[in-house]
Design brief:
single chain; alpha+beta; Alpha-Beta Plaits; two-stranded antiparallel sheet; 6 strands; 30% helix; rod-shaped; DNA-binding transcription factor activity; sequence-specific DNA binding; HLH_DNA-bd_sf; protein dimerization activity
Length: 151
């Protein structure tokens, strides 16, 4: 069977030049089939633009450190202390020394660090020489807050 030559013969897909209709695929590569995206450059520009805007926004917003102190009375001479502060070298040691200076013995202490922040929760019992009525939970909170700010 011989083919009849018509003007449409040039539009036919022949054996040597296959084309996948679902994807743009270039088969002229020596390595085989390689995917070529229609919107590759547009997508790169979009990602670059988003990245630049994100960096610009980060430069405008100051670094905010979480600083939180909670002090609650559990019973007569016991306090529950929760402190969140920026993790720095020696800061936990200074904090523990400050709590000891106040005259508290720490029990059930838990320290958690994540992404540059430290969380310390503890039960503290007053063991100082002066009456514990002088130390209110708010006073202890203010004292610890100032200690943490000095780090």
């Amino acid at each position: 069977m011989d083919r009849v030559k018509t003007e449409f013969n040039d539009l036919c897909i022949t054996e040597g030049s296959k084309m996948d209709k679902r994807k743009n695929v270039d088969q002229n590569e020596d390595e085989g089939r390689k995917f070529i995206s229609k919107n590759l450059e547009a997508e790169r520009k979009r990602r670059k633009k988003l990245s630049d805007r994100q960096l610009e926004l980060r430069s405008l917003v100051p670094i905010i450190t979480n600083l939180e102190v909670q002090v609650n009375h559990i019973s007569g001479t016991k306090l529950w202390i929760k402190i969140v502060f920026q993790k720095k070298r020696g800061s936990l040691t200074k904090l523990m020394e400050a709590i000891n200076v106040l005259g508290f013995d720490l029990t059930d202490t838990s320290v958690t660090t994540s992404r540059g922040a430290s969380l310390v929760t503890s039960s503290a019992e007053f063991a100082g020489n002066f009456p514990c009525e002088l130390l209110d939970a708010d006073q202890v909170k203010k004292f610890l807050f100032e200690i943490i700010r000095s780090f």
